[in-house]
Amino acid sequence: MRKPFLIGLFFILILVLSACSTTSSTNISVKMTDFSYTPKDVSILAGKEITLNITNDGKVEHEFVIMKPGMTVGDDFGPEDEENIYWEVEAKPGETKQVTFTAPTEPGVYQVVCGTPGHFMAGMGAKLTVVKQEPNS
Ligand SMILES: [Cu+2]
Predict the structure, then answer these.
(1) N or C terminus of the chain: which is more exposed, having fewer CB within 10 Å?
(2) How many angstroms does the Cα of residue 3 sit away from the middle of ligand 1?
(3) Where are the alpha helices (DSSP H) in the chain?
(4) 45 alpha carbon to ligand 1 midpoint, in Å?
(5) Using an 8 Å Cβ cutoff, are 115 and 65 in contact?
(6) Is 32 contained in some domain?
């Protein structure tokens, strides 16, 4: 009774994992509005140079701040969080720009927040998933 269920679960897990890895890339696009990111979950390849196309469709300046591994801001981004920043970029209202950064070598889920006071509190947060590159891709 139990075994087929476990095997089924195993294959579902494989499917989910492979689906995730095919969507990760070295070229990502993120749109910022007042006050959210689209998409809210971005997947990139560990250790690679990443090209980020970022657009601010909001009426105020926004930031895309990647926190260091295991680091999260509390209720909102504050001065105490500055030292825990892995990488950041900001964009003015209506601005679109292309920037590059090197992805963390450590796979995992990294917190992304807007560093403008009150914005993270207003819901401006996202998730950056760093995955190891598939050996055959
Ligand atoms: Cu913001």
Answers:
(1) N
(2) 49
(3) 2-23
(4) 25
(5) yes
(6) yes
Kindly give the distance from the C-alpha atom of residue 131 to the centroid of ligand 1, in angstroms, as a whole number: 26
The confidence score (pLDDT) of residue 60 equals: 98
Asked if the structure places residue 123 within a domain, the reply is yes
Q: Is residue 5 part of a domain?
A: no
Q: What distance in angstroms lies between residue 134's CA and the mean position of ligand 1's atoms?
A: 34
Query: In angstroms, what is the span from residue 117 Cα to ligand 1's centroid?
Result: 8
> Is residue 136 in some structural domain?
no
How far is ligand 1, taken at its centre, from the CA of residue 19, in Å?
30
> At 74, which CATH number?
2.60.40.420
The number of folded domains in the chain is: 1
| Assessment of whether the complete model's pTM goes beyond 0.85 | no
CA 69 to ligand 1 center in whole angstroms: 21
C-alpha to C-alpha distance for 125 and 32, rounded to whole angstroms: 10
| Cα-to-centroid distance, 34 and ligand 1 (Å) | 7
- Print the domain residue range for 85: 25-131
Query: 27: pLDDT confidence band, cut at 50, 70 and 90?
Result: very high
Task: For residue 21, name the pLDDT band (cuts at 50, 70, 90).
Answer: very low
CA distance 67 to 80: 12
